[in-house]
Structures are given as structure tokens and as C-alpha cells.
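Please, structure for the following, as C-alpha cells.
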Amino acid sequence: MHPLPVHRLDGCVRKLVENGRPRTSAPFNQEAFRGTRSFSEARTLPGEGEAHALPVRIGGVPPLTFNEARACVVEMVRAACAPLRAEGVTVEEVDIEHAAGRVLARPLCADRDYPPLARSVRDGFAVRVCDLPGEFRVIGEVRAGESSTQRVGPREAIEIMTGAPVPAGADGIVMVEHVTRDGGLIHTDRTAVPGEFINPRASEARSGDAVLPPGVRLDYASIALAATFGIAGLPVFSKPRVAILATGDEIVPVRETPREFQIRNSNAYSLAAQVARAGGAPEILPVARDNPADTANLIERGLDSDLLLLSGGVSAGKYDLVETVLADLGAEFFFDRVKIQPGQPLVFGNVRGRFFFGLPGNPASTMVTFEIFARAAIEILSGIERPALPFLLAPLTADFRHKTGLTRFLPATLRDDGSAVTPIAWQGSGDVPSIARANVYLVAAADRAEWKAGDQIQVLMK
């Protein structure tokens, strides 16, 4: 995939600061952020003789709300992908056996009328409806996969199976359950209207019709549709290559026994699973150690991919170097904090024609911010025009309250039938066991403090 052009955030709503008070600016002028390309300052730490580049938040810009940040991601990535799709540079053809889960790049068109002739949708008897009700002489039989050369005349019937072509002369089907049979005769007291239980020719699609638009993820029904019209090779968007870079001196490989002050690299593997599920091709890079040179080298390597996901190093600590290194590489930052929990310190930007996300290092924060932000970017890069979040409503099994101001995505269990949701007690954004036990995230709105048992609340499917 070619480097992505960066377009103006004309549709993104951003909050700026004017005279010390936040104001809403729409449309957003990206020129206002040109000063954030390098937002680290060389400062001398007390008691130390050398200068250190301390991470600095984007100046003068308060955190975005959840909706603002997601809209920013969607609009930026969609605008960047549009010219590449117009040129067709991101399209490949795959065999139908391997097309499930891919995103259709061009319309899928019918190669003939469907059905190609009128067919029965019931087992029964083909008759002239003007002769109903009454007695009929059975003159033959027609099954799916064959045609009948006989013609139905007055008070005549042809036994017919589901999917079989309707014989000439007949204009209705009497279901087999509605007749009594005596040898070669049937009797029914039913009436019908012309066309009853008949699918007319081309009632589902006409030859040349676009039966599936581009931008659709191919599921089992889409594959059946392609097979129906003889499309054995499908044009799909190329899978975006997504580099995954975990950062931190405390991280050790998953197969290594960590010391008490170390942790295994769980984030890289959870992100790889999420990337694959979103339609991307993940590549796990070596862990970046907490020094600028190592971080910069691995970021440079990650920029060979279509999207870069970094985990950790985006908070305000002394050794949180990700933003500083990206800035020194010429990155543009669209936001670096979102009013959500978990996952407030979240960076989204573009460097050298590649989008990147700096995800928080705590595992729950990494997983949640991927699902609600980075997943949308990957889906757009995969060809999805308008990525959706699978929010549902479910009644709570117990009272719930939280402090307003942040949209919270908390582990919860939704009953198998979807009839109720129960929050899971957890120990914060490092509590991987609680996240693993959950099957949804409970979504607590930023402007509401409490819910009673039985109240409806949003949940996000995990």
C-alpha cells in the first residue's frame, strides 16, 4: 500500500483554547496543529548535568471526547484512502475459497437472471388458479434440476417440488399439505391468487445487476451469492500490514520467565489477534527499550507497514518517549488524550504518510483503545467505508454508578440471551484476568452518574 496522503480534518470537531476557555471549532483547520510537529523541549533535570527531552502534551488543546476522537480517526483515514482506491492500487483478486472475511473492492454483478425462470417455493401441485377449488387430474411431476415439457390445462395439475421450474399453463402452487389424493386425482378446497408460491423469473436479480456493492466484508451469505453467479475469483482490497511495537524495559518475551519487576509481552499478542480480526495482517516487532535510539529505529522499521501500533510510552513519565521520538521524525499529531477510561493517554497521528496510534501500555487500555479507535482505522484501510461499533442496550442486574466526565468501557458479562448485563469487579487497567472473563464492555456515558438495577445501559460487544 502506498504512503497515505494527509488531508485536512474538515469534518472533525476539535476543541481549542481561547482566552483560557475551551471553545468548539468546526470545521477544524489542521494548520492550527502545525506547531505540534515537535513538541518536546530540552530541559535539564534537577541534579543532572545533561539535557533530556521531556515529553510534553499537545499545547493548548484539551482532551477530545470519545465521539470527537473516533470521528477524527474515521475522517482522517477515510480521506487518505480515497485517492488510492480511486486508482485501484489496493485491489487484488482472491479465489472464492479464501475470500471470506475480505472486503469487496468492486461491485459483484449477476451473470444471468435469477431465478433464470419461474420456480416453485413449495412442494405441492402446479395448477391454474382460476380452477380452484375443486378436483384435478395429476398429469405429471417436475423436480428441482429438471424441466417439464407438459402444459397444465383446465382441471389438471403437475406435482412439483421446491425449486423446480413452474410448467407452462400453471400460475399457482397448491401446497401438498392442502390436498387429498386418490390415485391420479387430487382435491383441494383452497383458493389462491395468481403467482402464489411462485418466484417469477428475475425476481431476485436481473442479469448485469450489481447485487453486492464494494466496501462489504464478505461473509458466508456473500460467498454464497458469488458462487450463485459463478464468480470464482473476487476482487478485494489488500489486507493492510500493521506493525505492532511494544515499548518498555520491563517487558520480556512471552516464553521467558520474568523477574518480579518484569512483565511478559501480552500486549503485542492481544493486538495481533485484534488486528487479524479487524482484517489486517499483523507483524510483531521486537520490543523497543526505553531509550530514544532504540525506539526510533523500531518506529522507522514499523513505518514500512501501512499502520503502526505502539503500546506504552505515551504517558507523561520521564521514560515515556514515544511522542518525543515521533515528533523528531516529523510526525503530525491529531490528538494525544481522550476523555475515556481506560485509555486516556492515546496518541493518533501521521508520519511520512503512515498513520500511527500510540496506545497506553496497560493491557486493558491497549485492548479497549484498539477496539474503539484503531480497529476503525484498520477496517477503513481494509476497504470498509463506514466502520461500525457493535453497541447494544441491556438492563443492568445491579445498581451502577461512576464519576462523570469520562466515557468508561468496563468489563462485564452479558447473559447468553442478551437479557441482562453484570459489571465485573476489576482492579484497574492492568487486570487482564477480568478482561478475559468478560464478554462485553459496559459503556458508562460521560454525562450520567448512576443507573439503577433494571435500567438500560449501553454495552460494546467484545
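The CA atoms of residues 122 and 448 lie 54 Å apart. The two ends are 29 Å apart (CA to CA).
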